[in-house]
Design a protein that fits this description.
The chain is built from 18 helices and four strands. It is mainly alpha-helical. Strands 1-2-4-3 form a four-stranded antiparallel sheet.
């Protein structure tokens, strides 16, 4: 797994975007550097010395991974910024200031960029050991904040309950339209639900259950992210409207072939493209990180999970479903009392 950090930019970014894990990693590493602009900063020489490699080795990684390392906090100081840094640096390192004082351009790393280098170095035994510590802390942090289970981590999103409850109304309109407008047996509910799932995230309900290792009694939608629930609801209410209009136009129920043609045209509407892409990215990326679940058909959509998502699912505002439902119920009571 530690080797994955040196090979996978997505894995590295997922760790570096997790501020809750970074706080624990910083405590464990205990390295400080120079406090500049409310962050600890490290010079290239300090980073090289810590990992027991040459400065040229650090330069090589900066050249090969410049965009990534800069995104994570590496900056080159010049002008007034450099002057200010030199003042702070000289106060901390009185006997090591020559190479800094003489510089007209100076690259410095914050802690994120420092860890970024640790994840890239393959020739440093110290970096290898640190990568192992990083992974242990990241796993431990997620387990502590989720109570050891991430199967229902989606429910920690503030928007989950509202989207789920609204989705039930849209679902009812969809199943009513199938009942009243499509000339098929009860099998039709599963068929067209799976058509929607396949259209959005390229899996039917059975395949989804297998990937998330859900038991037969577990509700598939209770494990879905709010953004995925949103687009499912949009599909269901939109297709329900098309079915009702077409059935009314023909003055009869539609057969299976006619319904399939209608759905094929419906899912090919251009308006779905950005919404589907967003849902696929969210599902593939979050499930890979939080649930260690790989959606084979969505591999091309896997990316780094954003810092906002870590706040959403691991932050102080996130909470378990029973607490969220209780909070929502109390809010509904207050609204009723006002009426």
């Amino acid at each position: 797994m530690a080797n994955d950090l040196t090979n996978s930019g997505i894995t590295r970014q997922n760790i570096l975007n997790n501020k809750y894990a970074l706080q624990e990693i910083q405590k464990a590493v205990g390295i400080t550097g120079v406090l500049y602009e409310q962050e600890f900063r490290f010079t290239k020489k300090q980073v090289a010395d810590f990992f027991e490699v040459t400065e040229r080795t650090i330069d090589n990684h900066l050249e090969k991974n410049q965009e990534e390392i800069e995104k994570n906090g590496y900056v080159v100081l010049t002008g007034k910024s450099l002057i200010d840094f030199k003042i702070v640096y000289s106060e901390v390192f009185d006997d090591e200031t020559d190479f800094v004082i003489k510089s007209v351009r100076l690259g410095v790393f914050n802690f994120r960029a420092f860890l970024n280098i640790a994840m890239l170095l393959t020739t440093s035994e110290k970096a290898k050991e640190l990568r192992s510590v990083i992974l242990d802390i990241v796993i431990d942090t997620i387990n502590k904040r989720t109570g050891g289970s991430t199967k229902y981590i989606n429910q920690r999103d503030e928007e989950f309950v509202v989207n789920l409850l609204k989705g039930e109304d849209y679902r009812r309109e969809f199943t009513d339209a199938l009942r009243d407008c499509v000339d098929m047996g009860p099998f039709k509910y599963m068929v067209y639900t799976d058509k929607i799932y396949n259209s959005i995230f390229k899996e039917n309900s059975k395949e989804y259950r297998k990937i998330l290792k859900l038991e037969a009694k577990e509700n598939v939608r209770h494990t879905m992210y709010s953004e995925v629930l949103d687009i499912i609801s949009s599909y269901e209410i939109g297709f329900a409207d098309i079915l009702k209009n077409k059935s009314l136009e023909l003055g009869r129920k539609l057969n299976a072939f006619e319904t399939d043609i209608l759905f094929s045209k419906f899912e090919q509407l251009k308006l779905w493209e950005p919404l589907r892409e967003k849902a696929r990215i969210k599902m593939a990326s979050r499930d890979m990180l939080f649930r260690d679940a790989l959606h084979q058909n969505l591999q091309e959509y896997i990316g780094a999970v954003s810092t906002e998502d870590f706040d959403k699912f691991l932050g102080d505002k996130s909470m378990e479903l029973d607490k969220r439902l209780e909070e929502y119920k109390e809010a509904l009571k207050r609204l009723k009392e006002r009426d």
